[in-house]
Amino acid sequence: MKIKAKVIPGYGAASGKNKDPRYSKGTIASQLSHFKERGLDLSPYFPGTLNVNISPYNYAIKESKHFFEQVNWSEHISAENFYFFDITLLFDNNKYEGLVYMPDPKTKEEHKQSSSTLELILPKIENLNYGAQVDLVIEDSQLAIFK
After folding, report:
1. What is the model's pTM?
2. What's the rounded mean pLDDT across residues 97-105?
């Protein structure tokens, strides 16, 4: 399925922009080795997330590409579960392959997202700013998109 989305600010935790002393390098950098141990190498991607609003749509999990249970990646919070889904972002006549990064809402303690926000892990994209309109290609077998 192809839908339009708008780039929005996030909490800044994933990239470390929020300067939280618990995660000085950002949460993604702190999680990289834990995901790699489980078979998912995120090193080709920018170590942060790109937040997009897919409103008026919402999503529901069907079948994730990767699911990791009880990842104990920080001494500051309890272990979390993580889902990953395939995603393609289209912007400025370019195609970027990546993943939807989704800490399980059932185990995530901080920085909760709305049901119309997706966090994307992608290569660094130049000239992509807040407010930009992008197209997302989402695997129907992995995420259900609905109004």
Report:
1. 0.91
2. 94
